[in-house]
Amino acid sequence: MRLTRAGEYAVRCVLYLSAKGKGTLIGRKEIAEHCDIPDKFLAKIAQQLARVKLIEISQGARGGYVLKREPRDISLLEVVEAIIGEIALNDCVTSSAVCRASGNCAVNRVWIKVRNQLRDTLAGVSFAELLTEDSCFLAPVSVPLDFRGKPKR
Amino acid sequence: MRLTRAGEYAVRCVLYLSAKGKGTLIGRKEIAEHCDIPDKFLAKIAQQLARVKLIEISQGARGGYVLKREPRDISLLEVVEAIIGEIALNDCVTSSAVCRASGNCAVNRVWIKVRNQLRDTLAGVSFAELLTEDSCFLAPVSVPLDFRGKPKR
DNA sequence: TTTATATAAGACCAATAAGGTCTCATTTGT
DNA sequence: ACAAATGAGACCTTATTGGTCTTATATAAA
User: Fold this and answer.
1) pLDDT in tens, A115-128
2) Which of A112, B11, B71, B124 is deepest in the core (most CB within 10 A)?
């Protein structure tokens, strides 16, 4: 696994929307500009976020994106996996096609362990938490105090 | 980071050499065949392992590879990083070029944390340990009892 | 109801990295 | 000297990433 550019952008986008608060409609261009994401590329990424119900997209004039859940209930893991799929650090873990011994392999067991560890840690970080610290924004954004807390899952 | 095919092959190779024991000369073809690694590709990988002194290569007729350290002192991390370089899960962690806020970014701090966690876990697994369980071999290999234990680092 | 402003969906393209091969040189045992 | 092995790096092919473009559709406002 690797946090691809698309994944990185998705995190920035959700972080920006989180700062604005759940339910606030924000135009795509504003996000793109503010978070330094190529406009059209963001459109593609947003569709994936919408598919997993993290955001809602409204079309037409004055359209844009709306965060559908509270930042404290959104984990880093969710956003990342919405874009790059379920995290796997190697092929063996997901498919036994590569390694004939797979399924009963000591090396594989280690990879499964570190993968779970990684996922657990990412699952434990909410966007509300991320907002309480300086983040990857290009310009400062005001952060409402009530968007702080731990994720439910 | 992702365990590439090359990294996977390197692990298999060192595991095979570990089973044979430190100091035992094994021909490249034997390893390639036994571990299901493309012969020429193994040559390339072996050079990287030699560069970090994990193995020694002898040329000429009856040449091959020799494990230079005890399996209990070789960690999974070492072998993996010998091939794919120091593990980094995203660009931000390594270079601040991508993310302008880098260095003081909450998201980045999370990635650094999970990366360290991952490296620590891999560093804690020795090849001796891996040998005590069924591994990614295509055919069974006898495992000397004295190659079992924890890695020094 | 027309027009301007947005996004939708997916085809498409360029750049990079992964996976692997090939060639020519060098080394070493016999 | 010769055969059997590896060294080093150029080179090729394929997959993935990162991103754009085009056509269609939706909506607010004039």
Assistant:
1) 999 999 999 999 99
2) B71
